[in-house]
Amino acid sequence: MLSLIIANLSTIIVGLIVLAIVAAVVIKLVRDKINHKSSCGCGCAGCPSAGICGSKPNSK
């Protein structure tokens, strides 16, 4: 078993790094969803999808 791990150590390390990056992205998306932050960086004024976006547009 130990020889299998040693033989594939570089693959295991790269896999763990990729897993950590994916986990960080998922955590960031969940936190943004909880805090009602938009995924785009712009406002809703000129957005063609403003009516179906997660944030509610201001009604006047």
Helix/strand/pairing category: mainly alpha
Distance between the termini: 67 Å
Q: Overall mean pLDDT score?
A: 82
Low-confidence stretches: none
Find the count of extended strands (DSSP E, 2+ residues). Answer: 0
Q: Approximately what portion of the residues adopt beta-strand conformation?
A: under 5%
Main sheet? none
Helix/strand order, N-terminal first: HH
Number of helices: 2
Looking at the structure, what is the overall shape?
A: rod-shaped
Please compute the radius of gyration using only Cα atoms. 20 Å
User: What portion of residues is helical?
Assistant: 40-55%
Describe this structure as you would to a colleague:
It is a single chain. The protein has 60 residues and is mostly helical. The protein has a domain of 33 residues. Helix content is 53%, strand content 0%. The chain starts with a helix and ends in a 26-residue tail after the last helix. The model has no long low-confidence stretch (mean pLDDT 82).
